């Protein structure tokens, strides 16, 4: 299975990804999406890179770097909650602000969805997207995901303020 497209490719995380991961993981603008509440130290991220086992059948998850053809990392894409018995997996993506709106996320999602269906032999892929995240909703719908449910007041975004979250699925 080839995890590359015309302008981008997906690869495993490497130790030299520490600086860019540190930048992305410590960006408060994406904490709401990733359910992060505090910054990560370089030491914690370094240990993650050293100890990350990329065998999805063991860890039930995998995180890949999204890179341009010139090897520049522009984001991450991940699979989580891999369930062999029920033949499903969750998916999430983060593209750096400087690389947004160029079609890279669509290509990365297409590549990883193909991998899920052809190599992991899953029946369905799902994602959870905050109702206010119109860019992500549009992105996932564009590649074939459909809204199948709405979790009301699911995510707390401020004191006494909650936001709905959509569940989307792509079923083969």
Q: What can you see in these coordinates?
A:
The chain is of the alpha+beta class. It has a domain at 8-124: 3-Layer(aba) Sandwich (Aminopeptidase). It has 6 helices and 7 strands, in the order E-H-H-H-H-E-E-E-H-E-H-E-E. It has helices at residues 18-25, 28-34, 42-51, 56-59, 104-118, 134-142; strands at residues 8-12, 62-68, 73-83, 88-95, 124-130, 146-158, 161-171. The chain has a 7-stranded mixed β-sheet. Helix 1 (18-25) packs across helix 3. The longest helix has 15 residues, at 104-118. It starts with 7 loop residues before the first strand and ends with a strand.
Set out the fold topology.
Layout: E1 8-12, H1 18-25, H2 28-34, H3 42-51, H4 56-59, E2 62-68, E3 73-83, E4 88-95, H5 104-118, E5 124-130, H6 134-142, E6 146-158, E7 161-171
Parallel strand pairs: 4-5
Antiparallel strand pairs: 1-2, 2-3, 3-4, 5-7, 6-7
Helix pairs in contact: 1-3
Task: Give a quick rundown of the structure.
By secondary structure, this protein is α+β, with helices and mostly antiparallel strands. It is 31% helix and 36% strand.
